[in-house]
């Protein structure tokens, strides 16, 4: 009955006054014990003096405890801070007692109030031990009663027996609504394996197998290692997704609330955590020097990459920041976000990079020094049969901004390209490659330095595969994958944007900077892992449907075209691509012809694109027939030469 009452009322905190009464009782008992210890466990002392001293000791202790607030801590959450408060209270009590004893010796106010220094020291030690022990005893009793009261305990393993793992265990133990039991730590350090930490055993990593997990009814594995290698984390998690356990992760320490881990922050691991790259510094001295007191213009500034470039530029000491985008809603959202974060020195402009007159007015008014050109159409299947729009924004739009950069003497023009521009198999990739070529041509004009950056998919960008899979999982599936063998490179939006800024700062003009994208990811495996990390089973709960390659889609992406190679830079993640030499006059002439033809809806624009980019060969698209015609034309011309 008593146990049921305690468990049923476990949510109520013990009164701080009850804690104060218990503490004073402990102090009084400790004072009596200190006399017994001082006189070798005999009664060879004046008990009448002791009885006079006890009330005074109790009053001094009460004053000290109330002053330090040592009685205000929640007993069942006792931690190091509470022990520190007890220590301060005991020290203050001892100092007050010694002061009163010394004054009494001089003034003789209380005839029988003389306490030997040895007893004061013994009393201090006993009081500290008694008060600390009592709190931890009550905490242990509470936890045991709660553990018995809950029938649905979850057994948890914490991967990482370091400081972060210990803090995770403490957070779980102190959480009032937690119905879990930490079965043990798992660590790779042989020196820790087999030992106990806070009464919890440390196991070797070999225990992460089906037999151990099922036998011990382990339902969760929490990864709590602050500096774990992303590839190592990926391997460990992928080894667990087939077992009947949930996999969770503790966030980086800088995300903890007021420096303390909250149980609510321990989240189920997401696929982004496995694809995430090693963190890089957001602030960089070279970038800071580059943009200092400069007018910076970002086109497509409300898009995934453009908006992150804007956010990062806002942390530097620029003169002014112009953000252009044709999407009114997205630009408004970015404006509100920047204002809420305390940034005000920026100008959002709703505009279209295809509108030369509008952009010319912006250039005349603001005189940008550095231009980041991120505006583009990027969805491969949509652009495959909307070549008019793809050419108009990706080529003609780039041409407009690049021409204005030269005519207004901008210092730098940084063009954001894509890996789909390499050996393109679709309209979108071909337009980006032609834009790269035009940017290279413009390097020969004026003083403006033209720089190209090239990288693959970014995590969480608009239209990327991961948000699509999440929506499909929420709807109950199936997940759609175009081909079982398709692979892609992934990079986080902040990292990609940071590297764009870095490349822009280091570029001297004419370079194509290629980013280290790490290892490519098999999309089919990505889909399976997302299903399993959602706590579902493949294919029992959610299946994966192979839909076939979309028009223009590749099985795998490339970062270098045929005949290209790279040179290193001072940044290990940025390389310079050495591209083939171009006939700049001829290329510019054909690009001008392409833009004019597109204005008049000339049906030969895709064929002209294939002339400008000979390596552009369509794949899984109706446009493949143009490549067959090209082959037939070449064959006929060769036959005529022979004849």
Automatic annotation (TrEMBL):
Family annotation (InterPro entries): NAD(P)-bd_dom_sf (IPR036291), Polysac_CapD-like (IPR003869), Polysaccharide_Synthase-Rel (IPR051203)
Assigned keywords, A-Z: Membrane, Transmembrane, Transmembrane helix
TM segment ranges: 17-38, 50-71, 83-103, 115-138
Keyword Membrane found: yes
UniProt-listed CDD domains: UDP_invert_4-6DH_SDR_e
Record's keyword annotation contains Transmembrane helix: yes
Annotated ranges, domain Polysaccharide biosynthesis protein CapD-like: 296-577
One Pfam family of this chain: Polysacc_synt_2
Family: Belongs to the polysaccharide synthase family.
Matches recorded under PANTHER family: POLYSACCHARIDE BIOSYNTHESIS PROTEIN EPSC-RELATED, UDP-N-ACETYLGLUCOSAMINE 4,6-DEHYDRATASE
Name of the protein described by the UniProt record: Polysaccharide biosynthesis protein CapD-like domain-containing protein
Lineage: unclassified sequences, metagenomes, ecological metagenomes
